[in-house]
Structures are given as C-alpha cells and as structure tokens.
Amino acid sequence: MAYERAEILAGAAVLAVAAGFALYAVRGSGVVSAPDSYPLTASFRSVEGVSVGTDVRLAGVKVGTVTALSLNPETFFADATISMRNDVAVPVDSTVMISSEGLLGGTFVEVQPGGALESLAPGGEIEDTQGAVSLITLLMKFAGGGAEGEAAPDTTATP
Q: Of 11, 60, 66, 114, which is most buried with the most CB atoms under 10 A?
C-alpha cells in the first residue's frame, strides 16, 4: 500500500513538472504572446539566425520576442513581427538590427531608440532596419582580400 501511494505521488510530480516545462516552452516560443504586449513590424534584407521566439532587446534587456517571420514576395525582404512589452514605448525614428552575442553566440534583435517624441502605435512599422551580417561572407572577404584591401603593384622595381 505504501509503494502504491509513493508511485502515485511520484507520477503526479513528474506530470506537474512536464506541464510546467510545456507551458514554459509555449510561452518562450512566441506562439502565445503575452497579454501585456503590442505588435510591431520590420522588414529585413536578411534574418539569418533569427526564428520565432528570438529575443528582442533594448540596452541589453529583453523587451519582446519575434512572433512571426515571412517572405514578402514583392520586395524579397523578410518581414518580421515582434511583440513588445506595453511598458516600452518605441520612438518612431528607432532602428532595429540583428545582432550577435559574440563570435559563437546566439542571435537577437536589437532595438536602438531614436530621439522622436512620438511613439510607434501598435501594429506600426520600424522602417530603419539592418539585417544579419553573414560571418562566412565576412571571413571570405577577409581571407580573399577585396578591391580596397589589395596591394598596389610595385612600380619601383628596376629591370
């Protein structure tokens, strides 16, 4: 009888922990947005490394999440929808860029606030964007040299 009670309590504890993890995963993925948030949109040339659930940060503090990504067939840009906390008013002249936490770190969306007194309304668009910079492309430019990085031919040599 004591074993049955212990097994039931252990099973209930496992189910409670599993339900907690499931709730945490759904909220963290951006599938269910927080009720105290509002949506904003932005279009990027490249959203490499960003997915639904990616953090949106302002001054290094998480202030939202990416809730949707889609390709705009007219501009061939990636349209992102982000969910911002209600207590964070984003000025209309703000910039949003895709940043990295270091050479091997994760990717996040960074908001750099502008100086305008007006704030973006829910559903507004942040127009000044900077897409992701491909690390491979940068390494290839560095390793292969470029037009600006090439040395000029030596014209002082004597025959």
A: 66
**CA pseudo-torsion sign 119, 121, 126, 127:** negative
Residue with tokens 């910079």, as numbered in its chain: 133
Which one, of 5, 118, 107, 106, lies nearest residue 46 by Cα?
107
pLDDT of 4 > 70? The answer is: yes
User: What is the reported pTM?
Assistant: 0.64
With contact defined as beta carbons under 8 Å apart, do 82 and 64 qualify?
Answer: yes
Share of the chain above pLDDT 90, in %: 40
The two three-digit tokens of residue 64, written as one number: 């939202």
Whole-number pLDDT of residue 109? 92
How far is the C-alpha of 80 from the C-alpha of 73, rounded, in Å? Answer: 14
C-alpha 121/C-alpha 6 separation (Å) is 54
In our burial notation (b when 16+ CB lie closer than 10 A, e otherwise), range 125-155 reads ebeebebbeeeeeeeeeeeeeeeeeeeeeee
